[in-house]
Design brief:
The structure holds two protein chains of two kinds. Chain A contains 14 helices and four strands. By secondary structure, chain A is mostly helical. In chain A, strands 1-4 form a two-stranded antiparallel sheet. Chain A has a two-stranded antiparallel ribbon with strand order 2-3. In chain A, helix 2 packs antiparallel against helix 13. Chain B is 76% helix and 3% strand. Chains A and B meet through helix 5, helix 12 and helix 14 of A and helix 5, helix 10 and helix 15 of B.
């Protein structure tokens, strides 16, 4: 047996489930894309990996949690009113605003004084800020036990969008009817024997009774098998409404971002700064203001992603909530070509799909490792990323 | 000074210090103290070995705990499976395991080092971080390695002197490399890769060598750690540990071996002191934070705008630090009058990582080259300091 077949034998691949997993991956990827945009924008203007971006994401999720408490959905509340989309919107806006402010503050106090220093100094500061937010946050924020946002805040939690991809095989309906009839007959036989023998319970140890019961059980198994086979013969996608809203909102935010970057004056300035920092400042661009704006926009996107992932994916919050999404989104940004905005979106979606595929193939334990494997592969074979230019940086 | 006498004196001083440390640890008769001394030695090895990669060669690696872990687990699993039927006992076996740990960690270093050659500083940082995580995740999913629960390493070998001897050996390796012609390419790569390669330095080889030596030393530390503790788990090699090693190197001065050693010992004992300190009230925490921020702001102002002599600047720095300490003391008393702040309690031990990250940020703001910069301890320096002292004494008398 060669390695390929051994590998395939170890995998329990359920191909009927694949489309669903791809959709899940894209939904998850939309969150990664939102975070990746922040990384890529900051890298574009400052050539700095903003390590603290994942922590901004974490703080955004906490802000959403606090707003949900303020709206009456605290963990101790017993009578909960009917939620509405207004609540969700309030959480979203609050997270985005708070994250934007935090992002600007981090830039102002930690990164701006470092701008004249070598890049490594900025990088160490970024790591320091990231660790500081994680561990100082753990002192003051509700951290253990991990806090989930109550799912009751989501008015659409019970609604699921169902898209049939392949209709079910109708020939099974007849077969099920036949099996059910057989089962009913067997069941009736058991009942009849119980009445004739006068046994109250089913613990009839005589050989005839046992035989009848076994036949009945076999028939019951046949029915359930047939039914599940019937269900599996058709494929349909299930998307919870919440996650659909998440995806649409993320898409809308990306379009707004595109509009800002491509069609407005600050957006043009931002592109100028990312092309050449010094020349842009000579051309009259207020570089500091543009950098602040970049941090504000990137952090607000992370805040939106944080609120939506905490609310619609039902994740519990700790102060390390941002570490894994942050790292994965960074990889997504590199995968798409860091500094490249469409690249970040593409990378985010691919990252989400890659992660769900790893889980789907039965290697769920390694789902956090796939990000780094992708990262190393990208850096080795296409250092510029998928959409980036792969020119070697000369000193 | 003459060459050979200095070398002999240095080696003897190193050996003497190592056995003195060991004797002192044994004399305490306290297992806890002894363990602290041993672990301090392990951290010194880790810090010095990362300094070789980060400080001396200038390759920003932040996943050093991964190599430590590779060393610990490879030595541990070999010991568990082969010690009984090897026929080797005691010290020779441990030495063998140290070599094994070094080899496996160096292989891991090679795996990281080779692809990272093409990467600039910040990408390399992420790759090493990622590699550390991959190692941890792989170990966590291996049955023979005890998965996430950890594994027992038997037999235990607890030689305090050996740990410190290894630490001194690590220091000697780095120091000799730095002072010899073989080390100059490392410094050249740190200062300017392009210029170095133009001068005929094989940049690739230098980087890989740095990664190999650095990770091998970390692997030795891992083997010693595993056999001293007798139990290892993936929890002991988290990302957090990599950041702690990084903080040690950065604090000591990137490139200064002396700095790495001092910072490793200081930062290793800090959490132990914090553990003894007990809880801190909200008032104290707030006052301390405020005073620290104020001190950093003022020191930064002096650095940026003061143009006096070094001595005058130093006096100002000292004044600011002492003033802010006094302020924090007074402020903590005032703030503790507020009932909410006085009743809030924070375990000092939990402040550990907050302090480490604060150290990183403050250091970058105030003194990016680290406390010692590129300065090193040397006999000439000692002679100069003692000479000054003597001449001052002669003048006053």
């Amino acid at each position: 047996m060669d390695l390929g077949t051994a590998f395939a034998a170890g995998l329990q691949l359920d191909f009927a489930n694949l489309p669903q997993q791809l959709v899940n991956g894209i939904l998850l990827g939309s969150i990664y894309a939102l975070i990746a945009l922040g990384y890529t924008m900051v890298y574009g203007v400052l050539r700095l990996i903003n390590f603290a971006h994942g922590e901004v994401f974490m703080l955004g999720a906490y802000m959403a949690l606090f707003v949900s408490w303020w709206l009456g959905y605290s963990p101790t509340a017993t009578t909960l009113g009917q939620s509405s989309w207004v609540n969700l919107l309030m959480m979203l806006v609050a997270s985005m605003v708070v994250c934007a402010i935090i992002g600007m503050l981090i830039e102002l106090f930690a990164y701006r004084p470092m701008r004249s220093q070598p890049r490594i100094a900025s990088l160490i500061t970024a790591i320091g800020v990231s660790l500081m937010l994680q561990y100082a946050g753990a002192l003051f924020l509700p951290n253990s036990p991990p806090q989930p946002i109550r799912e009751e805040i989501n008015p659409y939690r019970n609604e699921v969008l169902q898209i049939p991809l392949k209709p079910r095989d109708t020939t099974f309906i007849e077969k099920i009817k036949v099996e059910e009839a057989e089962f009913n007959a067997a069941e009736a036989a058991v009942k009849a024997r119980m009445e004739t023998e006068g046994v109250k319970s089913e613990f009839d140890l005589s050989p005839e009774g046992r035989l009848l019961r076994e036949t009945r059980n076999d028939e019951r198994n046949d029915v359930t098998n047939m039914k599940s086979e019937y269900e599996r013969s058709g494929v349909s996608l299930l998307i919870p409404y919440g996650q659909l809203i998440m995806f649409v909102t993320a898409l809308a935010l990306m379009l707004i971002l595109r509009h800002i970057v491509m069609n407005t004056k600050p957006g043009r300035a931002m592109r100028a700064v990312s092309l050449d920092f010094d020349s842009a400042s000579l051309m009259g661009v207020n570089v500091n203001r543009i950098v602040t704006l970049t941090f504000a926009i990137g952090s607000a996107l992370a805040g939106a992603g944080a609120m939506m992932s905490a609310t619609f994916l039902g994740l519990s919050l700790t102060t390390f909530f941002g570490v894994q999404p942050g790292v994965k989104a960074f990889v997504a940004a590199v995968l798409g070509g860091i500094g490249n905005i469409p690249g970040a979106v593409l990378g985010g979606l691919l990252m989400g799909v890659a992660e769900t595929l790893v889980v789907w193939s039965g290697y769920g334990d390694y789902k956090d490792a796939i990000a780094f494997v992708i990262l190393i592969a990208v850096l080795l074979f296409r250092p510029g990323g998928l959409l980036g230019s792969s020119k070697v940086e000369k000193v | 000074m003459k060459y050979w006498p200095t070398r002999v004196v240095s080696i003897l001083a190193g050996l003497g210090a190592c056995f003195l440390i060991s004797a002192a640890a044994d004399a305490s008769g306290n297992d806890y103290t002894k363990r602290l001394v041993v672990l301090a030695g392990v951290w010194v090895i880790l810090s010095v070995s990362l300094n070789l990669i980060n400080g001396i060669t200038g390759q920003f690696s932040i996943g050093h705990a991964a190599f430590w872990q590779v060393g610990a687990y490879s030595a541990g699993i070999i010991s568990v499976q082969h010690y009984a039927n090897s026929g080797i006992t005691g010290l020779p076996w441990l030495l063998l395991m140290m070599v094994a740990g070094a080899i496996f960690a160096a292989l891991a270093g090679l795996v990281v080092g080779l692809p990272s050659l093409r990467l600039r500083g910040d990408y390399l940082a992420i790759v090493t971080l990622g590699f550390g995580e991959i190692i941890r995740i792989i170990v966590q999913n291996q049955k023979p390695l005890g998965e996430a629960y950890g594994m027992n390493v038997s037999p235990k070998f607890q030689f305090t002197w050996l740990v410190w001897l290894t630490a001194f050996a690590a220091i000697a390796i780095c120091r000799n490399l730095l002072k010899s012609a073989h080390g100059l390419p490392f410094l050249a790569v740190r200062e300017d890769e392009v210029a170095a390669s133009a001068m005929g330095v094989n940049v690739t080889r230098v980087k890989v060598t740095a990664f190999l030596i650095g990770s091998a030393l970390a692997g030795v530390a891992g083997a010693l750690f595993a056999h001293y503790e007798g139990f290892i788990s993936p929890q002991q090699f988290r990302m957090e540990q990599s950041f702690i090693i990084l903080t040690m190197v950065v604090l000591g001065g990137t490139g200064s071996i002396t700095g790495s050693v001092l910072a490793a010992v200081a930062l290793f004992y800090l959490p132990e002191k914090l553990r003894d300190m007990g809880p801190v009230t909200g008032g104290q925490l707030l006052a301390g934070t405020f005073a620290t921020v104020l001190a950093v702001y003022l020191v930064k102002r002096v650095i940026d705008h003061f143009h006096g002599t070094k001595k005058e600047a130093a006096i100002r720095h000292l004044g600011i630090v002492l003033g802010c300490m006094a302020l924090s003391f007074v402020l903590s008393i005032v703030l503790n009058q507020v009932p909410v702040l006085a009743s809030a309690r924070y375990e000092a031990e939990k402040l550990r990582m907050v302090i480490f990250s604060g150290v990183l940020i403050i250091l970058m703001l105030v003194r990016p080259q680290g406390l010692l910069g590129h300065a090193e301890f040397s006999w000439e320096w000692l002679k100069r300091v003692l000479g000054q002292r003597r001449s001052e004494a002669a003048q006053t008398s």
